[in-house]
Structure to design on (812 residues):
């Protein structure tokens, strides 16, 4: 199931947690856990999010609270190998 | 049957073997029974206590409340030996028997990722409590069950405590404790820790399980044959060497999962001759680790479904019961309807900006002009240059800055409102798929749309894009979105030159901008801003009624930040350009005319550049002054063509500029750097280097398209004055 999620992430593009949950047959919080799990295992890394480091002087700082709810994930080398192996 | 009692079939033999591969229930997947060696005896409980109970669970499942309710006044706190993690102990009495209860730190898993996880797992492994009560949140059952799958690897009987059953009930997704107990093969006790409901039953169940030591349940993980084979190999290799209190099953799982601690332990236990076999085993372990974790998620999912299906709640894509959010999302996330809604809302924001900010902008301009004149009159005694500085330089630039404020205020308010309702994430999601073709992210959608009003907030809005490459690309392309100032220039000049085709030419010019955005987007996203392929995984918040006070605070904070960040630079550059347009003439005390100014000289210097479009220096200077603000182009043309009033400018220009040149001029005006405010915003967001790159790119693109359009128009015979008729 984790491998399936990794392959989905490797496809790139935009997807919302509800879609992933339906695809995998689990609940939204579990998808969240699984993504964190994959990151802990070194297959994924959260990317971007420079916003948070520059927030202080930003006119859009308060809009950035979406940061916590929206995450961009990129595959690590390990993740890329695992995903291409599984696909 | 009392739902609090475990079903008869749920208490398997205490003599459960280590995990064994069995014929799969579904397909050819073998089943693993990792309920290892739980029959190992525990150390004796303290005097006067019949058994020791450990309470475990994920953080925020109500574990602490449950512990406090259960143990009451007997609660004692301290620290785990050698750790900064708090240790809480207490006692609970059930039917005359006293149980010692220890509260383990909240953990998401038992993978030694944190001190808390290590404390919890080491306690169970080393101290062997008589029973472990695992607290699950009924509103997030599946998450807790994943932890249960890990806990069941440990050598301890488990009682599942189903907390917050009232909240799950209220949310319309009650958990059937009896069905869950059946599915897990474990006692399941529903409680509401907050009110204390169910705690007596819990204490009785804990006492019974602890004293009978009869609650063992096999977790059936369905894994592929390769993973099962690897588990068998690992077990065969290490089983003879695993000392107490560790269990073979737990060590095998941790080894396969690549846990460094487990690998180090096994290496120390194994004779040197077996190390090569261990290394070979670990080299193949990564896919199996994923498979095991995946199998645990799948197991947790199956168990959760079996406990909730009984109540007919089938949709798993949500956090809670069917809500308005689901209903609205069916429309808002629809590939087509969602886009239509987005376009309608964006058009609404654009209209709102024009309707609300337009008049404010005009009155602010007028007020600043009047204030400037009044102050100019006060300083007139200091000479014409001082007066001109006050009126045109100081008040002109500050006035320009202030005219941005209404647009920004309306935009920020609309943005904050949409954000607060939870719609923004949907809009970004829907648009992302459309924009990804040209390397832009959906999050940049509103800035792009509102960019039609003003590029300055649009550039700031690009801040919400996480990927640096997508953000830079968006910032560089944003100035090409026709802003309202450029539309004003179009509205004035196009009908004058192309009386019969004004609408067509205007639409053509706007379409050209959009085409250039798409073209450059495609080009740059496939070359410079390629970036890595990323998956944009969004959590869509629930819709909610926006808070007006929060919106007001947000608008105020952002306006202040804008004035602080971009404001200074706008004023400095605007005053500089003003100075260039009056010096050196003003130094000689005469009337400062733009023709003789440094700006005029620059225009004449650049005149050869205009030659391919038959463009004289006055048009070049007009384009350059458009850098202050696009509307300034009209004012500059008025000064240079020595006329007053917009209509008169047109008449004079018609007599001296061919339609082909006018077209080239309009194309350049539309594609060139929008204004100093946008540049300031770009510099703030992307840095000087990228701003220079963006400006250079716009310069090159506008020039190339200007010349190109002129050539095409010349081919159509429009390069003669009056050619457009």
């Amino acid at each position: 199931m984790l491998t399936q999620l990794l392959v989905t992430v490797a496809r790139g593009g935009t997807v919302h947690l509800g879609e992933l949950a339906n695809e995998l047959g689990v609940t939204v919080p579990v998808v969240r856990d699984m993504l964190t799990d994959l990151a802990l295992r070194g297959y994924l890394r959260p990317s971007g999010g420079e916003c948070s480091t520059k927030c202080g002087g930003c006119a859009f700082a308060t809009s950035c609270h979406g940061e916590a709810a929206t995450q961009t994930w990129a595959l690590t080398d390990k993740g890329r190998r695992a995903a291409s192996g599984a696909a | 049957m009392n739902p609090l009692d475990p079903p008869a079939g749920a208490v398997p033999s205490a003599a459960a073997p280590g995990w064994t591969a069995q014929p799969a229930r579904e397909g050819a997947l073998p089943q693993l029974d990792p309920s290892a060696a739980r029959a190992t005896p525990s150390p004796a409980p303290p005097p006067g206590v019949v058994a020791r109970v450990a309470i475990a669970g994920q953080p925020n499942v109500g574990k602490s409340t449950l512990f406090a309710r259960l143990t009451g006044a007997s609660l004692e706190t301290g620290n785990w030996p050698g750790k900064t993690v708090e240790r809480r102990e207490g006692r609970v009495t059930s039917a005359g028997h006293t149980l010692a209860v220890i509260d383990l730190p909240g953990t998401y898993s038992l993978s030694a990722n944190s001190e808390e996880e290590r404390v919890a797992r080491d306690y169970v492994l080393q101290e062997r409590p008589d029973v472990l009560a695992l607290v699950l949140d009924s509103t997030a059952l599946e998450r807790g069950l994943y932890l249960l799958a890990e806990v069941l690897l440990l050598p301890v009987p488990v009682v599942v405590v189903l907390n917050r059953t009232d909240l799950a009930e209220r949310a319309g997704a009650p958990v059937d404790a009896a069905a869950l107990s059946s599915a897990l093969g474990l006692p399941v006790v529903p409680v509401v820790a907050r009110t204390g409901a169910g705690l007596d039953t819990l204490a009785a169940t804990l006492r019974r399980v602890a004293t009978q030591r009869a609650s063992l349940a096999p977790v059936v993980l369905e894994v592929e044959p390769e993973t099962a084979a690897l588990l068998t190999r690992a077990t065969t290799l290490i089983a003879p060497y695993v000392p107490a209190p560790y269990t073979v099953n737990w060590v095998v799982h941790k080894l396969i999962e690549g846990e460094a601690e487990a690998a180090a332990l096994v290496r120390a236990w194994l004779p040197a001759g077996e190390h090569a076999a261990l290394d070979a085993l670990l080299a193949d372990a990564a896919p199996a680790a994923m498979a095991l974790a995946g199998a645990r998620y799948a197991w947790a999912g199956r168990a959760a479904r079996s406990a909730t299906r009984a109540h007919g709640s089938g949709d798993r894509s949500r956090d809670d019961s069917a809500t308005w959010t689901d209903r609205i999302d069916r429309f808002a996330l629809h590939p087509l309807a969602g886009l239509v809604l987005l376009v309608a809302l964006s058009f609404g924001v654009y209209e709102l900006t024009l309707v609300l900010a337009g008049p404010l902008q005009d009155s602010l301009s007028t007020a600043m002009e009047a204030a400037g004149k009044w102050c100019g009159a006060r300083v007139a005694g200091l000479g014409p240059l001082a007066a001109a500085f006050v009126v045109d330089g100081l008040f002109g630039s500050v006035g320009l800055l202030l005219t941005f404020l209404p647009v920004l205020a309306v935009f920020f308010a609309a943005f904050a409102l949409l954000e607060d309702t939870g719609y923004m994430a949907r809009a970004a999601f829907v648009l992302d798929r459309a924009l990804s073709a040209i390397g832009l992210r959906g999050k940049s959608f509103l800035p792009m749309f509102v960019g039609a009003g003003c590029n300055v907030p649009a550039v700031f809005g690009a801040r919400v894009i996480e990927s640096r490459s997508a953000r830079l690309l968006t910032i560089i392309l944003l100035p090409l979105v026709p802003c309202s100032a450029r539309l004003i220039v179009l509205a004035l000049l196009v009908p004058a030159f192309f009386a019969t085709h004004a609408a067509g030419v205007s639409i053509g010019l706007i379409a050209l901008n959009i085409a250039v955005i798409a073209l450059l987007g495609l080009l740059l996203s496939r070359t410079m801003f390629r970036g890595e392929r990323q998956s944009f995984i969004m959590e869509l918040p629930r819709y909610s009624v926006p808070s007006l006070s929060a919106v007001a605070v947000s608008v105020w904070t952002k306006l202040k930040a804008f004035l602080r960040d971009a404001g200074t630079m706008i004023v400095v550059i605007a005053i500089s350009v003003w100075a260039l347009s009056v010096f050196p003439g003003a130094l000689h005390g005469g009337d400062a005319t733009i023709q003789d100014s440094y700006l005029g000289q620059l225009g004449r210097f650049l005149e050869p550049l205009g030659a391919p479009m038959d463009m004289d220096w006055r048009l070049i200077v007009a384009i350059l002054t458009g850098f202050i603000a696009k509307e300034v182009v009209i004012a500059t043309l008025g000064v240079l063509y020595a006329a007053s009033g917009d209509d008169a400018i047109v008449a004079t220009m018609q007599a001296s500029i061919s339609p082909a040149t006018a077209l080239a001029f309009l194309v350049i005006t539309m594609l060139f750097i929008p204004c100093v405010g946008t540049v300031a915003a770009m510099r703030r967001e992307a840095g000087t280097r990228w701003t220079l790159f963006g400006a250079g790119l716009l310069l090159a693109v506008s020039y190339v398209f200007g010349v190109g359009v002129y050539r095409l128009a010349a081919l159509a015979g429009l390069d003669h004055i009056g050619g457009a008729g």
